[in-house]
Amino acid sequence: MTGVDLISELYGETDATLVYDVHTSVPAIGTQRTAEHFHLTNSRIDTIRLIFDATPWHTVMQAVAPS
Question: Out of 11, 31, 32, 53, which could bridge 22 as a Cys pair, Cβ 3.0 to 4.6 Å?
Fold first, then answer.
């Protein structure tokens, strides 16, 4: 990861969602659009969901996987 650009912040009483671009130093990936959803119970985070398209990572992971 070489940087992050926040695109959007959405907040409610019991959840929050962040949408951002993660910049990587991996040429096959480049910038990865990502979302994180946080759910709160009693004002504390109880769940975090990370959402992104992993398809570009398949080729990278196959290239570095041991034979």
Answer: 32
Q: State mean pLDDT over 24-28.
A: 84
φ/ψ of 59, rounded to 5, equals: -65, -40
Report the alpha-carbon distance of residue 16 to residue 31 in Å, rounded: 23
Task: Assess whether pLDDT exceeds 80 at residue 67.
Answer: no
DSSP string of 1-31, one letter each residue:
--EEEEEEEEE-SSEEEEEEEEE-S-TTT-E
Q: Could you tell me if 34 and 50 are in contact, meaning their C-beta atoms sit under 8 angstroms apart? A: yes
CA 21 to chain centre: 8
Q: What whole-number distance in Å separates Cα of residue 31 and Cα of residue 9?
A: 19
8-state DSSP, 54: -
